Amino acid sequence: MEDAQVADLIEELADRGLTIATAESLTGGGLVARLVDVPGASRVVRGGVCTYAVDTKTSVLGVSPERLARVGPVDQQVAIQMAKGVRSLFGASIGVSTTGVAGPGAADGFPAGTIHIACAYPAGTTHRLIHVEGDRALVRAGAIDAALRLVRDVLDFAGVQAED
Fold it and tell me: Exposed, middle or buried by CB within 10 Å (0-12, 13-18, 19+), for 70?
């Protein structure tokens, strides 16, 4: 996503009276950094957490330890629970999460480039499974762009407004 598009996203969140928080694994804080690169992001960005270690997904975000033990962190429901958890943790209108395999090799039985992103908002949740080809840096950058596009789509199609 281009810089101008990220700035437009921040502006629209502000115009709608919405806030956002990030829960990151494979992106390691890159998503929240991308948001706060925009001047004025403090109007909408509540914060972000990097739960890179599996156990921190539970201790910080409330992800089910049973689910993590059963399926590992590369999972749709884990991504959704991360997004819900960060939304609650920061009291944000929108929570967005990234989890997956950055590479260079496979992990937890999934090839590098397997990414789950999720968005939690007042009316529900949205998830996407994507696959990004390339080295570790390209995979992580692709995950950040996909997460930003997911937030954009939630704003465009879910009609998210500030809660009364």
Answer: exposed
Tokens of 16: 């709608």
**37 contacts 3 by C-beta, under 8 angstroms:** yes
Q: What is the pLDDT of residues 40-98, one digit of tens each?
A: 999 999 999 999 999 999 999 999 999 999 999 999 999 999 999 999 999 999 999 99
Residue 76 DSSP code: H
Sort 73 into a burial class: Cβ within 10 Å, 0-12 / 13-18 / 19+. buried
Place of tokens 């399926």: 71
Alpha-carbon distance 133 to 114, whole Å? 9
Structure tokens at 55: 């156990």
Number of residues in the chain: 164
How many whole angstroms separate alpha carbon 162 and alpha carbon 31?
Answer: 22
Interior CA angle at 16 toward 12 and 19, to 5°?
A: 85
pLDDT in tens, 100-116: 999 999 998 999 999 99
